[in-house]
Amino acid sequence: NEGFWNVLMTCLEVIEQHPLPLLNFSRRDVLIDHLVFLHGVIIASEAILFKAACKATGQVALYYQKHLGEERDHATWLAEDLLSVDVTPPQVHWRAARLAGTQFYLIEHVSAVAPLGYMAALECRPWSMAQVELLESLHGKPLLRTVRYHAEHDIDHGRDLLTLIESLSSHEQDIVINNAAHTAWLLSKVE
Q1: pLDDT: is 187 or 169 the higher one?
Q2: Is 126 helix (H, G, I), strand (E, B) or coil?
Q3: How far apart are the C-alpha atoms of 146 and 100, rounded to whole Å?
Q4: Of the residues 40, 94, 117, 178, which has the maximum number of CB atoms within 10 A of its CB?
């Protein structure tokens, strides 16, 4: 479908304008800092999905509800992964809060479709299985259990997400794509 490929290319182009920082995950401290950040992002994701599902209508609301079920308890999983190396995530991760706060603002004041861009920036470039396996060999599987799950499932989530974005009006697609670019920019600032 030509529309799907256009949406895919546009989303990937805006996301790739802001590549993720090249972090040395072979260093345990760097990996743990990043996982603590991801925990802050994931912990907010359930609330973002819930708020967006309440405000959205039709297929977008149904998508959020389904995805909320798929993401439920992932913050708990990642907290447990971190506990396997005696790390407790902070109550507030300020960089993650900045990222999440943008989504709540957009849901409330712009459109409930906006978080689809946030989701695209997070789920359309999952960690490769080769990267996960290398990190597991360096740091142990218990620390990377949630990362592995997302590496295995985010490819399908990304495809489903892009299919939904394709079905939106051009105005809604613009909102989503601009939010994907903004989210990718914020993620590129994570160190």
Answers
A1: 169
A2: coil
A3: 20
A4: 117
What is the token pair recorded at 64?
Answer: 């959020």
Length of the chain (residues): 191
Q: What are phi and psi of 168, to 5 degrees?
A: -75, 165
DSSP 8-state class, residue 128? P
Residue 72 pLDDT exceeds 60: yes
At 151-162, the pLDDT tens digits run 888 777 778 898
How are the residues of the chain apportioned to helix, strand and coil, as percentages rounded to the nearest 5?
Answer: 75, 0, 25
Query: Considering only CA atoms, which of 60, 86, 91 is closest in space to residue 75?
Result: 91
Give the pLDDT score at 16.
72
> Which residue in the block uniquely carries the two structure tokens 């989504």?
103
Any residues with CB less than 8 A from the CB of 190 and at least 6 apart, and which? Answer: 20, 21, 34, 37, 95
**With contact defined as beta carbons under 8 Å apart, do 85 and 32 qualify?**
yes
Least Cα distance to 147 among 41, 21, 4, 58 occurs for 41
Residue 191, pLDDT above cutoff 60? no
What is the pLDDT averaged over residues 16-26? 75
State both tokens at 21: 């920082």
Q: Give the predicted TM-score (pTM) of the model.
A: 0.87
Of 84, 75, 77, the closest CA to residue 37 belongs to: 75
